[in-house]
Amino acid sequence: MDMLAPPPRFADDVRRGLLSSPKQLDPQYLYDALGSHLFESICKLPWYPLTRAESALLERHAAEMVSSFEGGATLLELGCGCGEKLSMLCEPLVDRSAPVHLQLVDISQAALDLSRRTLARFGVPVTAHQTTYEEGLHRAATCREPGLPMVVLFLGSNIGNLDPTGARALLATIRSALQPGDALLLGADLVKPHDELIRAYDDPLGVTAAFNKNLLVRMNRELGADFDLSAFAHEARWNADQNRIEMHLISQCTQRVNVPGAAAEVTFHEGESIWTESSHKYTPEGIAALAEQTGFQCTRQWIEPHARFSTSLLRV
Ligand code: AVI
């Protein structure tokens, strides 16, 4: 099979991840073009209520969420997706004729373009940064509108895909880009009954399984690997000690896989896993504690009671 040019660090990360113990891969690699489409489909599944719960909170409470910024604000979204959530938060400010500047940070140019189109109807300045969260925060801090407070939006429970150390580090980075009077609006999925969590990450239609197994497809395509898809099974595990759902790909037999693009030959034992993603779940108190540890104060939380999802306002 022809090998397509993989992103520069992919081969190195795959080599390191598959030769380590336990075997693991960075979840960012789940999101190639097909993976991103599969994730959009996951968000529409009846068993994955997270996205709908957050939209419901924003639909109901957007005006309250930005009520401290009625004199105007720069809204900066990390991982802007299609710009729909940013629109919901922008609208109440624009309706009050408050000055609004929008800043978008995303690694995907397609997401930035889509968001720009969604946000065009407001007729307010939009600055897009195609880069990492850290670099985007740095750039946004240097070109912020003088006199306007900044509200960073980190929604969709993307915080959940970071381990506790990574989550603290990112919040500390956000904090260091902000000034007194600024804020962070944080969306985080909450701990809920075990069976609901498992169904959300191992749905009966097999869409999440396809999302997970697509990582094998990607290694076959981009690194010339010879993973046999039928020899691996998707598994979602709740790790109660760490409050996280883990996604794994479980080898169904003892086998050897060749990954020439990563210069690796990998042996799998029957039942051995590749750990592909963690999704940490929070408690409302845990979010408040995380805020305190990173220089914020959690001043308000909105909770969707059925799906157990939270949006928290963290003030500097
Ligand atoms: C993007 N992220 C918040 C999703 C989550 O729930 O952790 C990714 C996902 N993985 C499987 N289903 C959804």
Explain what this protein looks like in three dimensions.
- Residues 10-315 form the Histidine-specific methyltransferase SAM-dependent domain.
- InterPro entries: EgtD, EgtD_Methyltrsf_superfamily, MeTrfase_dom, MeTrfase_EgtD-like, SAM-dependent_MTases_sf.
- GO terms for molecular function: methyltransferase activity.
- Keywords: Methyltransferase, Transferase.
- By secondary structure, this protein is an alpha/beta fold.
- Helix content is 38%, strand content 26%.
- The protein has helices spanning 10-19, 33-44, 50-65, 84-95, 109-119, 133-142, 164-177, 194-201, 207-223, 284-293, and strands at 23-24, 73-78, 100-106, 126-130, 150-154, 183-189, 232-239, 244-251, 255-259, 264-268, 273-280, 297-304, 309-315.
- Helix 2 (33-44) packs antiparallel against helix 9 (207-223), helix 3 (50-65) packs parallel to helix 4 and helix 6 (133-142) runs parallel beside helix 7.
- It is globular, with a radius of gyration of 20 Å.
- Bound molecules: N,N-dimethyl-L-histidine (AVI).
